[in-house]
Amino acid sequence: VLQVCLPLNALGFAYREVKDAWVNVERLFVLLREKPEIAQKPDQPALKIQAGEVVFDHVYFHYVPERPILFDISFRIPAGKTLAVVGGSGSGKSTLARLLLRFYDPIQGRILVDGQDIASVRVDSVRQVIGVVPQDTILFNESIAYNIGYGRNGATLEDIHNVARAAHIHEFIESLPEKYDTLVGERGVKLSGGERQRIAVARAMLKNPPILIFDEATSALDSSSENAIQRELNRLSTNRTTLIIAHRLSTVVGADEIMVLERGRIVERGTHAELLSLRGMYAQLWLLQQRQEKEKVAAEAQNL
Ligand code: ATP
């Protein structure tokens, strides 16, 4: 039985899934929060992935009918491009990711990958082409090498070292007493949120998916870790269709399109420059975060 660094009661209904040693970690991360509620018809064909274009076409969604969550969401992420979604807590950002991973089906509207409605193809074939860097990465009580290698069956140690280098975690791993054999998780070395996220980045690089979901951690990171994660994200998203669920606006500046969600509705969209010149909600948030960022850097300098 696979041990995960979480109390089993938190897994609840997901426990049976977890017993399967090849349970996919992305699946696990979403399963922890909610039960999949999709109707899978038998004999559906597999998704035929091409360049990896993602389209949301007039999507409406609710978890419970009394509380609509998304209203008429339409966007297109051309293959290889990046869409960043920003908005207040509870505005529906992560729900977009859950729908793309098909943990739920839209109430109305369609989600297309390379022109194919994801509701009409096999769900595993959709999840196979999507890599997820979750907000809070779950690590198994296993070695670091195992935790990274999980991204791809049959990965060699050399592959693992290469992606760890690219994710800027290699030197840190080499500094641990047992290097790549160091146990992590509850019964091993405790890693910081930033270190765990870098392991998730390395794992996603190994999986090498055409589509990537990056769910940015809400937890506060110091400015240098933030910058490091930013660089890794840039590297990881190059030539992949990327959906960023962003909490810090610094992450979204370079996105091809930014979408501002408010209570489940798209209220602004455009590039960073376009949204700043709109002088609307995004521009206000940006000014606020810039100020906070300056204060943080000043406070860090004082503490040195
Ligand atoms: P945050 O920035 O805080 O992560 P978010 O914009 O990602 O928020 P979502 O996680 O998409 O927000 O949630 C949107 C709304 O849906 C929230 O009000 C949340 O309480 C509700 N919600 C999320 N999951 C469920 C669920 N399984 N059942 C019922 N309501 C849910």
From TrEMBL:
Query: In the UniProt record, does the keyword Repeat occur?
Result: no
Would you say which domain of life the source belongs to?
Bacteria
Q: Name one GO cellular component term.
A: plasma membrane
**What is an annotated GO biological process for this record, any one?**
intracellular iron ion homeostasis
Domain ABC transporter, by residue range, is 54-288
**GO MF term list:** ABC-type transporter activity; ATP binding; ATP hydrolysis activity
Q: What is its main location?
A: membrane
**Keywords annotated in UniProt:** ATP-binding, Cell membrane, Membrane, Nucleotide-binding, Transmembrane, Transmembrane helix, Transport
Query: Where does it localize?
Result: Cell membrane
Regarding the membrane, this protein is recorded as: Multi-pass membrane protein
Q: Does the keyword Repressor apply?
A: no
Question: What name appears for this protein in its UniProt entry?
Answer: ATP-binding cassette, subfamily B, bacterial
Q: What gene name is listed for this protein?
A: irp
Q: Which residues of the full protein are shown?
A: 303 to 606 of 606
